[in-house]
Structure formats: C-alpha cells, structure tokens
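User: structure tokens for this one?
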Amino acid sequence: MNANWTDLRARTALRQIFDAAIASADPKLTIAGALPAKPKGRCIVVGAGKASGAMAAGLDAAWPDVDLSGVIVTRHGHSVPAGRIEVLEASHPVPDETSEAAAVRMLRAVDGLSADDLVIALISGGGSALMTLPAPPMTLADKQAVNRALLASGATIAEMNVVRKHLSAIKGGRLALAARPARLTTLVISDVPGDDPAAIASGPTLPDPSTKADAQEIVRRFAIELPEAARRVLTEADETPKPGEIDADVRLLAAPSLALDAAARAARDAGLTPIILGDALEGEARELGTVMAGIARSVATQAQPGPAPAVLLSGGETTVTIGRGPAGRGGRNTEFLLALAVALSHAADIWAIAGDSDGIDGTEDAAGALIGPDTLQRAAAEGLDARAFLAAHDSYTFFDRLGDLVRTGPTLTNVNDIRAVLIADGKPRTR
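Assistant:
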C-alpha cells in the first residue's frame, strides 16, 4: 500500500474533486457574460430545469435597469429568490399539476409580444418533467404514465426526450413559435452527452431534428407501454418545428466537459494525474461499474492509460433498467459504485466517488456515494451481501447502512453525473 494515501486523504481528495466540478457550473458566476443585447422593450424570462432558479437569480441581478419579468419552474427544494422573476416548484422526475400550470403560464407570458421585446429562456436538465403540457387529447395522467414507463425502460435521456418532444404542446420548439415576433435567446446549462441544446429539457425553444417516426421506433425498441391517447398523438399530431423554421440564439453557460476540466484541475492540486475518459459515457450503470474496475486495475498493474497515483474522470448519464420484480432504493450513481465495488473485490489502493451534480441521485436525498478498498469487508461485517443488494437495485440502502452516502443538498446546477476513481498506487508487472 502507498503509505502516503490513507483512507482519509483519498476520500478527502475525491470529495474536493467532486465539489470543484459542481462549483464550476454555478450559473451565478457565468450568466452575466452570456447575456444578449438589452431590448428596446420588455424582457420576458421563462424557463425550466433544476438550475433555472439560480439562473433566474443571476439574470435578475445582472439587469437591474431592464423592464424584466417572467416565470420559471424548478424542482421542489431547488428554488431561490429571483427578484422580479417568479420561481415555481414542481415534481421531478414524474410531472405534477404545477408542471402543467407552469407550462401554461409560460405560453401566456410570451403571448402578444412585439419585435422590440426579448424573451430569455433559461433551460437546464430536468426541464422535461418540470414543464409539462400534454398534447391533446392526452391528459396529465397520461403524461405521468409515459414518464414512468420511460424511466423504467432503459432508454437513454436523449431517447426519452425524443418521445417527450412529440407528446408535448410546448417542447420541441413549440415555445419558440409562441414567442414570435419577439427576439429569443436561450441560455443553457447542459446535462446531456455532446451538449446538444435541442436535447436539454426536450428543447422547448429550439428546432427539433427528430421526427414522429423516430419516437415511434424508440417506443417499439424498448417495448414502452403508452396510453392510447399518447399513441394517437404520435401518429396524428403535427410534426415539431424543424431546423430552418426557428432562429436559434443559444448560449452555453456550463457543460459536463467544463466540469470535468475543473475536476482535473482539482486532481492535479491533490497530487493526482487526471485521466479524462469522456463526458458522454452511457449504458447500464452496473455494466459501466464493471468496465471502470477493469480500467482502474490496468492503471494499477500496467500504468495504462496512465500511471498511478491517478484519477479516472468521467461524466454522462447511465441508465438502470428495472425488471418486473420489486426494486429497492437507489439511483444510477450508487448502482454504478456498488457494481464497481463488487468488480474490484478487495483491490487495494482504489477509491471512488460518483454523484449527480444536481445533488439528487434519482429520487433519493443523496447525490451519490463513496467506496474504498474496505467497502466489501465493512459490508460483510454488517451482514450486508453486496451482490444481493446489487441484484435488488437497492444500492442506496447498502451505502446508507455503511454511512458512505454523499449528501450535498440541492446544488442549484446540473451538468449530469460526475465520476472519479482514484488509484493511489501502481504495481506494474515485470515482463
């Protein structure tokens, strides 16, 4: 064992790396420099997402001399005072009545504007559920059923949003159409692989390159059970506005790649070599855990793709496919970590942290968790069978029993998941 890397030092370094990634995405630090030219007339602010409250507060503070008003919606517990901009709270990941009411109010807010007015849309991850207006003849109950089916299907967030756009009366560019003829600027905090702004919160102000046929294919491929009204919309409703039909002024405030850059700087400060594996890793959370264990072992035994002490950094959004049996508590990050711990077994000198940058992993009260070389040993001492908890998708309970959950509270931003695997010592094989 590398005596310089104690359990406390490794855990402290990982938490510093995780916190640095989140801090880099604070909208209050980035929004002022991204604002467009001030309007001759009014500025109407609309938006949705887990970071939209903090974005609205930053915008209100930056433009005290502009005739500004508006309404945005964020997740319960993520609200902050935003001056002249009203902040609503709604349910996530399954929409509720406030989600629908917020969408209606946004459409009313942008109605009847002139070319001298400016609409600023504040969009971040989570907006799809928080701003929900079912396309007729769907009801809110239909949309809730669709969201539950999507979340359990194993589809990626991008695939989910393709379906959501085509079942909505406000997403997929329809909010932009309602704002005409006002000038429109969209400020985005990305939580999607590749930072495609049309995929974030299902792109309410941006043209939609996907089609109803794409949505139908996703529904078939994942065997998603849709209410009859939703099936009618996917076959009978008009297409979403396509590229060329909407003028899109989009400005990126924060993104997973920038958060990983900040994490890498913190890693260097801690005496570690950062190895960024990418900001768009997807797939089943437990399978990624197994893959990441293999890469960590390669660093430790072969100094590939780099020598220890090092930290493997990655972002993106994995999925957890729930079978038909009962499932426990947990999110994609704690499931990733439990699979990683099982795959590493009792490997020495390897620690890891993983968490959702918004502070909530799935529907629980933790952002994620930490593991170390002794995780399975401590679990066994508590009578916890790691493999059984993994099979039951009960990773939250597992780490809660060990005291290894990471609780940040709402961070008021969202640049997707942050994963860091620390390899403290290398033991290269002789050839």
